[in-house]
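haha ok so turns out i had the wrong file open the whole time. this is the CORRECT one, sorry everyone. sequence first:
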Amino acid sequence: MRILIWHGWLLEGSGSNVGTARTAQVWRAAGHDVVLVCQERHPERYPWIDAAGVIDAQGPNEVRRTGQAASAGRCVLLRPHIGTTLPVFVVDRYEGFDDVRSFTDLADGELDGYLRANVAALASADEWHRSDVVLTGHAMPGAAIARRALGDGRYVAKIHGSDLEYAVRKQERLRDLAAEGLSGARAVLGPTREVLARCAGLVPEMGQVRRAVVAPGVDVEAFSLRPRAASLTGVAARLDIDPDTARGRPDQTDDLVVRALDARDATALDALATTYDQAVPEPGAASRLRALAATETPIVGYLGKLIPQKGVELVLDAQRMLTRDSDALIVGFGGHREWLAALAFALGRGDPDALTWLREATSMPIDGSATPDARRGVTFTGRLDHRYAPDALAAMDVMVVPSILQEAFGMVAAEAAAAGALPIVARHSGLAEVAEALESEVGRPGLFSFAPGKGASARLAAGIERILALPALERGELRAGVHAFVAREWTWEQTAAKILAAW
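then structure:
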């Protein structure tokens, strides 16, 4: 089949980015002819992309082979010209764009220009490709772009959580854009029942459009059960030869964080996050991971964006409440990195005044003790992409998904389960369905989730304690059980097949 995908961003760094990439990869391997319209600027990094170029209203141009291995199918990546502004749901830095802004911050004319450029690109890609199936990402803008470019019933729209919570819920014009696109879709897909119901509540114009649950997948060959020490030293060895780490967060930044914390200087903390490249691992990550590998202290981990909405501070807060030794492993990047470093320092030295300031300055929902405790180590690594993330997760005893805002699914919880890191997620939104599925599989109601809201840190700490208190043999059986479930139920092959079935 000829399959056309519209995705507005890159192919890694977020759940929707990874999902787009993996689905295209599976379809190519199955013999389909795939055209992927997105903003990825490094197609050579993906061995399943056969050729790449740019596209506008006149059609594709500058299309060149990327020298990848032959396959039963084909995937061509085409990048639309959209100017220098990239609209996003959560603001981060993106290579090639001087101006990255949330959809809510775009002027009407800027939003219209972005939509027109993508409509023209998608229409010409469809005409060139003669597509049989069209998949668009997000309630907005993908669905509306597809309707304007192709007409009613010519596309399937896949919704996520970020589109609903950071755009559709925020502005009437963006809700109207979602209504325009979703009401004309052949089907609307979502990763959980909860997010489909949430979308229908926000966009009742969906009406009787067919809906289907299509969970994201996990690469169970990459995310697999591995020994802890070997996983950590393996990541460290690969980081040693990764030239990108030179652009990461210097170790001396910690001294500046302490200085800003002691001065109660919020502006300085915010500014520090802009002084290095957040999209790469930190230079000191390799030595820190080797230090972890040399111990047998349980690791309580987090992997994801370091932004307030993800609730990473709950992991650090809960760790201080544990009755046993532990190390927190924080893998990720984002503008909240320096605030989390400040929190780790304040907790580590038992500084009640600093904790009070952090609560007031950022509304961090923390209530941990200000008692210093050297048994609570915290390790930050910076961003570890798909080359490193499977091993990092495999080394964790417990992996926490503490999101404060609603999530559509929580792909990292599934990846953690596949890697044998027993997940604990906030019991709300689509995360609750993920927890329920895993808990049901092993017959342990409530083991992999905690109640959100006031006092969540204590409940999370109790959940971590429950898992760490289990005998090693029992924890090993749980690891094997959740891995087997993911390998059976949540694979990218199943995801790709269900999308075509929904079509």
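The first strand starts at residue 2 and ends at 6.
again sry for the mixup
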